[in-house]
Amino acid sequence: MSKSCPLLGTAVYLDCLDCDDKQCKRQQYKYKKVVIGVDQSYNNTGISIAADGKLLKVRSLHLDTYKTNSDKRRALRETLDGLLRAVCPKAKSVVCIIERIRLRSQGFLNINYIKSIGALNSVIVDICHDHCIQVYSVDTRCWKAQVVGSSKPMPNNYGVPEEKWPTVRWLLKQGWEESLLIPIEGRKTKGTFIRDGQKYMYNNDAADSAGIAMFGFIGDQDKLQEEK
Fold it and tell me: How many CB atoms are located within 10 Å of the residue 78 CB?
C-alpha cells in the first residue's frame, strides 16, 4: 500500500506501519529524533523537517488558492498526514513544534485572528495526535533569539519584511536559497527583487518554519508549551 505525500512529492510505502514486530521497527529507524516545524497561516504555511540537529527539508504549503478556510484546513491536514506517514517510521522520536498564537498585535486583542488561527492549530494537533505525535508551541521572539541570534527587525534590499529578514538571512548563509527562492510572474512588486532580469521573492514563511524546527535541537526546551 502506498500514499503520495504532497510536501515531499514522493510515494510513501505504508506496509510496515501496522507491523507488530519490534525488531522490524527498530531496523527502520534512520534518525533518533525528527522535529517538524510549522509556521502556520491561511496564506502560506511553512513546514520544515529537521533530524538529529540538521535541516532536511524547507518547504511551504501555499493555501491562498483555496476559496474557504475549511478547504485550507483540509489541505493542511492531508499534507501533514502524508508527511507524518513518511517520517514516523524513520525516526525513534518525532515531535511537532508550531508558532505560539500572539494574543496581542501592536497592543490590540484581535479576537477574529485568535479564533481562526486556533482552528488551524487544532487541525495540526489533531492530525499529529492521530499519529501519536506530541505538539508543542514556542514564542516567536524566543525561537528567533535562540536559533537565529536576534528577534529584532533588520532592513534589507530584497523586499523581505524587516521582522522576517534575520531568519531568511540565517538560512541563506547555510545554503538554503534554492528552497526559499520563488520566481514571480505578473505585476506584483511588493516583497520582490530583481536578479538577472527575473523577479523573485524569498519564502519567509518557509524560513520561519526552519527556525522553529531547529529550536527543537538548539533551543531551551523548557520554553516549549504542550498543545492539546
Answer: 16
